[in-house]
Amino acid sequence: MTIICSHRVNDPADLDNLDPRFGVEIDLHADGDQLVLVHDAFTTGPSFETWLDSYHHRFIVLNTKEEGLESRIEEILAARGLSEWAYLDQSFPFLVRTLRRGERRTMVRVSEYESVETALALDPTPHWVWVDSFHGRWPSPGDLRRLVEHGFRLMLVSPELQGRDLDAEVPMIEALLREARVPLHGVCTKRPAEWERQEADWWWN
Fold first, then answer.
1. Tens of pLDDT, residues 154-171
2. Is 56 a member of any domain?
3. What is the pLDDT of residues 74-87, one digit of tens each?
4. Cα–Cα distance measured from residue 96 to residue 16, given in angstroms and rounded to the nearest whole number
5. Which among 38, 52, 69, 203 is placed 20 to 30 Å from 87, CA to CA?
6. pTM score > 0.70 for this model?
7. What is the DSSP letter of 172?
8. Which domain of life does this protein belong to (predicted)?
9. How many structural domains does the chain have?
């Protein structure tokens, strides 16, 4: 089923209030010896391990806000038996290093500024491509099909995260997926309930 991830669920109270059928996207920094959930640098937030006490959800997008956190993150997740997750926003050297050690649970970005060709050049292939659109220009149907045929799953950035009207843009996104003849494997959004469309022909079953 299409994975719907709620954007920036860094507060344990927000996690408690989120239906477990949804996934989450979080921001991770180091604060001394612990990992904390906070978007901005030079601030602190809830500890990752405390936050995980409330996590009973479908998937975690781990937005790593600094380099070199991977081994600590993976140790914590493995200790809790959590396997449904992927990194986001690794720098390219750390993304390549992660792939070369055999960990493919990561995402490469594609947008107006980050090319499909760069994503396709990665070897091994990450599990996910983070499909973003800063100005409403999405990849072509052909490019989406190439990505899926290459082995990527598509995680789409919902338009409202870039300040655009979700309701106005969804019909165009649906038409794009339909023309590409590919499913939407995941979406990151501030409005998760509005993306639940199991009847849609692009829904991933």
1. 999 999 999 999 999 999
2. yes
3. 999 999 999 999 99
4. 34
5. 203
6. yes
7. H
8. Bacteria
9. 1
